[in-house]
Amino acid sequence: MPPATRASHSPASRPSPEAGSGLVARTVELTELTLVSDERGTFTVPLEGPGDAIPHELPEGAVVSLVMTFRLGADADGLVFETLRVGEGEDPVARRNLLGSFRAGGPYEIRLPPERLPLGRAHCGPYDVTARLSDAAGVEHARVRYRFSLGRAPERGRRRIGRP
User: Fold this and answer.
1) What is the pLDDT of residues 72-92, one digit of tens each?
2) Cα–Cα distances in Å, from 151 out to 42, 56, 118, 145?
3) Dihedral, CA atoms, 9, 56, 129, 116, nearest 10 degrees?
4) pLDDT higher than 90, residue 98
């Protein structure tokens, strides 16, 4: 089983086959990634180091939004943020969000549309998520891996038979 949280930032530059031995500068730096849920508040995903060994707990059926903050060293066209969520015994769930084009500078903060997590006892357990920020040319600027655990939702408003 992989570590609970693992993040990797692409290096500041990488070799480009077109330029021979030249380097292509990275223009996008992911500075923060946060999970926001009404049920459990916010959880900032560690972008450096191994992070916590215990995954963040979320209740089944929770509505969660991802909020990302990034800076640009140069104009960037067609930024795309993709996530792949994999749970034990579950089919992978992929989401692709087109962010658009941005001018150099920042920080820019983007809140992605909310997503309802699976509901039901069969979906409870750990989930591994890989998030990736790339541009229209397919250049990957950041990749972050994190984990959350889906647990039973608290029982609200339910009455047991025979009890007030």
Assistant:
1) 998 989 999 999 999 988 899
2) 17, 10, 10, 20
3) -130
4) yes
